[in-house]
Amino acid sequence: xxxxxxxxxxxxxxxxxxxxxxxxxxxxxxxxxxxxxxxxxxxxxxxxxxxxxxxxxxxxxxxxxxxxxxxxxxxxxxxxxxxxxxxxxxxxxxxxxxxxxxxxxxxxxxxxxxxxxxxxxxxxxxxxxxxxxxxxxxxxxxxxxxxxxxxxxxxxxxxxxxxxxxxxxxxxxxxxxxxxxxxxxxxxxxxxxxxxxxxxxxxxxxxxxxxxxxxxxxxxxxxxxxxxxxxxxxxxxxxxxxxxxxxxxxxxxxxxxxxxxxxxxxxxxxxxxxxxxxxxxxxxxxxxx
Length: 289
Prior knowledge:
The chain has helices spanning 2-22, 38-50, 70-83, 98-104, 133-148, 154-161, 165-190, 210-224, 227-230, 239-244, 259-277; strands at 25-30, 58-64, 86-91, 94-95, 108-111, 116-117, 123-125, 130-132, 251-252, 282-284. By secondary structure, it is an alpha/beta fold.
């Protein structure tokens, strides 16, 4: 108990130090992004916003997640945006799949050199496990291409014949929802202050149109969801790749001598405590442990 009390005291102090430095409310979420967690999440965000000491509606959301449901991610965004006008995501370690989708909804994404997002291959519950939908769809697409060329083996024919069409349709819907959400959120939030071109040499200084924002959002969604680019559902995509390949602006705090120690102290102590306790989910704020 004394150790737990010491951890709580230290984490609370770290949280307050972060809030002072960032001038916003700090929230921490660890675990899968699932519908079952939404009620607790709603109450958690409501309490934090109602007792906010921040003059502006700013939320800095620390996220550690293996992924989960795109539908749950959408509702989490709606809950946060109901209470906060600006939401920034801090990824000290990793946020994959639906965690990446969640981060894309932010006005800013804070990462350091060791942080990672992942491909946005949506995970769908098949009755037993969460499975990456695009892997199934890609495999079926390759089999259909071989069937069109009369190149299917007997074994491949049996695999294709035994596919559950309703389940495949659900995978397609999950894929389409993911792309729709990314395009919507990028234009609505991350790109809303993107007024003039700064990188394309032929357009530098020119105003950015709504269509150009939508085109960039479409490109990012396509790349993040392309298995042929990442080859693995668990691929760890760092800030350098996000910046160079996706041309996605990341707030990299790797060399920030003040913010980086604050983030590490807060996150590492919490994740060590979570691992020791064996929690599946964990939320923290200055008023919630």
